[in-house]
Design a protein that fits this description.
The protein is mostly helical. It has one domain. 45% of the residues lie in helices and 9% in strands. The chain contains three helices and two strands. The protein has a two-stranded antiparallel sheet. A hairpin with a 6-residue loop joins strand 1 and strand 2 (53-55). The N and C termini lie close together (10 Å).
């Protein structure tokens, strides 16, 4: 069974830094969901007010479940 930790939160609060340190210490693979969404064309557009990417959550969920089912050490 895979060990999985999802880290989310407000932009610019250290999520990437913490994730990279944690993945390194645990010797786990780090999957950056934002990069995954971009590389799989799951960005639907840009939020006009905040400038954030709008992601197809259903498609991203399916992709993550597929990755999790095929990975021993995620």
């Amino acid at each position: 069974m895979s060990n999985i930790i999802f880290i989310s939160g407000t932009p610019c609060t250290g999520k990437t830094t913490v994730s990279e340190i944690l993945a390194g210490k645990l010797n786990w693979e780090l999957v950056k969901v934002n990069d995954l969404a971009i590389s799989n064309n799951l960005v639907l557009g840009i939020d006009e007010d905040k400038g954030y990417k709008v992601i197809d959550i259903d498609a991203l969920n399916e992709l993550l479940l597929d990755i999790i089912s095929k990975t021993d050490n995620l």
